[in-house]
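Risk register update: the risk of archive-format incompatibility is retired. Evidence:
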Amino acid sequence: MDEATRSRLLRLQRMEATEAAVYRRLASRQKNEANRAILSEIAGDEERHESILAEMTGEQVKPQSWKVTYHNLLATFLGLTFAVRLMERTEQGAAAEYRALGMDELADEEDAHEARLIGMLEEKRLDFSGSIVLGMSDALIEMTGVLAGLTFALQSMKLVALAGLVTGIAASFSMGASEFLSKKAEEEEGSAKTAALFTWAAYLATVMMLVCPYLLISADGPLVYGFETHIQALFCTFVIGFVIVAVFNYYISVVDEKSFKHRFGEMSAILIVVILISFGIGVFLRGWLGVEV
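Archived output:
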């Protein structure tokens, strides 16, 4: 065995050992018996792969402890499915590498068996992902439009923040109530309250982040590249909006295995159109009503 091949095998061996340790740790934390069994089975496969590679390299390797900790933290804060799918995505070249080394059986297991098992994982929070999508997407589209229109109509940081918060908080309760009634009408009363809570929380959190620049930037602050403070706040709101879109769509693309570029591009285009329309409406109404602030 030449040194280059041995180096590749050692890297794959360390990867398998790390994944096995991650799955074992995740399995030990699961209260759901089915999830624990699935994760334990995948961990067993990874350990078997690692032992096969150890026989070929003649060395024992240790898992990368920081990766084990990192993926367990992801599972804690962002969910089991996200942590597992992200780990598999980062290691998706392993199957091709196994085939290049003539280890087709391991490659097939990497491609099919683990993917099937991961697809069987159950996670309660994903049942309400649609409610989170509803709350967050509606808040992004509605509030960026509202803030753009109010900024050009009122040109006052405090007034825009006040109007934005009143509108956003009221709308969050309205969205939560609508989701509750929708789920109840579908005879899902057991989950209606939880779905409403997720929708309300996602909407309200998005509103607070979008209004934040109007509360933090001083109204008497200096011009930046010739732009007044209310324009600076609006620009920061746009940036926050696009960051939220990017982060959220990346999360969904990992969990649901969908195209990030398509979803991000589609939602960004909608935001831009809404912002431009709202800008025009704000300027028109300000002139038409003769509002001077």
